[in-house]
Amino acid sequence: MNVAKSSFTELPTIDISDLASDSLAQRQAVADTIGKAAREVGFFYITGHGIAPELIAGIRTAAKRLFALPMDQKMQYYIGHSRSHKGYVPEGEEIYGSGKPDHKEAFDIGFQAADDHPFVLAGTPLIGANEWPQLPEFQSRVLAYYEAVFALGHRLFDAFALALGLPEGYFKAMVTCPPSKLRLIHYPFDASAEDVPGIGAHTDYECFTLLLADQPGLEVLNEDSAWIDAPPAKSAAGEEAFVINIGDMLEVLSAGTFVATAHRVRKVPQERYSFPLFFACDYHTLIRPLPSFLTAGEASDYQELSIGEHMWSQALQTYRYLREKVNKGELQLPERARGTNTFGHLKKQAQQKTVTNP
Questions:
Q1: What is the DSSP pairing of strand 13-15 with strand 43-47?
Q2: Which residue among 1, 45, 307, 339 has its CA within the 20 to 30 Å range from the CA of 324?
Q3: Where does this protein have coiled-coil stretches (predicted)?
Q4: The model's pTM
Q5: Residue 226 resides in a domain
């Protein structure tokens, strides 16, 4: 495994406009830059992404209108009522590795799968209809943003393939009806929010994440276990940058060469909105390390994983309503479920604690 981590103090910025070039050499050059950032940091900003400002403004408007509703109206769309794990997530619903509830509220939507899709008919977890609040233009604005950023995710997945030495379209057949989730997240104003967790330290379950946020708060863990600020950024032309980070599944594919870097959100006094889209392959896709990234004795660290099973098992261990169903025996963790904090720097920290406190 060729690992080249760095004790970074800021995130690199990559102009990806050449991913739209007709020249494979130009696309490869961008991919190589992305690969370097994925190896050394696991996080980076992108500009030249082509997401229209109108789409960004539209989802912000939709989110503000939704979260301004009274709680009883928002709870009509509670995620615990959904058959496919979508809808409104109240504050305190999610509990990460620290055991402390998160101080935020969210609304989750997913890929628009038809009711007669085989995955839906089979009752596949995470796949199915979205919950849509009865708010003017909410559905159209959120879907327009999802579709544009999802298409951007396909371009980035092609670039990751090139960066890993694979054919450019290597992953395309794996993304037909994925459990790729878009979250609208709201952190309410809190004047006393100093040094309070907003989202606890974690890695993202999927392949990679495309994030847009409007206020500081995101922090990324570097190789020296120091938390590095990753505030919102813009290009010289004023284009809002997206933050891209490597998820668990790309770490598995590359046997740890691409790192699923741990991150968290500190609770800042400002009201904050963020919009992460978690890009995944289809539920039943099996992910295993590519042979070119393995050396003797390393295969045991990255066993074959089903993307969907991994995502579902992580949700079962994170969301309060799902944890309760597991505790009651109404749901079971998949046989190959991994615990939380088992990737990236969180995995290393857990191993160090085990050695220190046997």
A1: parallel
A2: 307
A3: none
A4: 0.91
A5: yes
Q: Which residues contact 181 (CB under 8 A, 6 or more apart)?
A: 86, 108, 109, 110, 126, 277, 278, 280
Residue 290: exposure state from Cβ atoms within 10 A (0-12, 13-18, ≥19): middle
* Tokens representing residue 299 in the block: 């295969």
For residue 108 the two structure tokens come to: 């989750």
From CA 29, how far away is CA 8, in angstroms rounded? Answer: 22
Residue 211: helix, strand or coil by DSSP?
strand
Q: For 166-187, how does the pLDDT look when each residue is reduced to its tens digit (9 = 90+)? A: 999 999 999 999 999 999 999 9
d(CA 44, CA 252): 19
In a domain, 97, yes or no: yes
Chain-centre distance for alpha carbon 130: 18
Token readout for 171 is 């992953």
**Distance in angstroms (rounded) separating the CA atoms of residues 152 and 95:** 30
Q: Which helix (H) or strand (E) holds 322?
A: helix 320-327
Q: Report which DSSP code applies to 15.
A: E
pLDDT digits (tens, 9 = 90+) for 36-81: 999 999 999 999 999 999 999 999 999 999 999 999 999 999 999 9
Query: How far is residue 81's CA from residue 257's CA, in Å, rounded to a whole number?
Result: 39
Q: Where are the beta strands (DSSP E) in the chain?
A: 13-15, 43-47, 87-89, 105-109, 181-187, 197-202, 208-213, 218-221, 227-229, 242-246, 263-266, 272-279, 286-287, 305-306
Q: What is the CATH number of the domain that holds 131?
A: 2.60.120.330
> For residues 211 and 56, what is the distance between their CA atoms, to the nearest angstrom?
12
Mapping DSSP to helix (H, G, I), strand (E, B) and coil, where does residue 296 land? Answer: coil
Pairing of strands 181-187, 272-279: antiparallel
Question: Which residue range(s) make up the domain with 234?
Answer: 13-356
Is residue 2 one of the residues assigned to a domain? no
d(CA 142, CA 58): 7
- Please check whether residue 321 lies inside any domain of the structure: yes
Q: Phi, psi at residue 206, to the nearest 5°? A: -90, -155
Rounded distance between C-alpha atoms, residue 271 and residue 195, angstroms: 15
Contact between residue 127 and residue 179 where contact means Cβ atoms under 8 Å apart: yes
- For residue 185 the two structure tokens come to 């997240």
C-alpha separations of 330 from 93, 325, 326, 333 in Å: 18, 5, 6, 10
What is the count of structural domains for the chain?
1
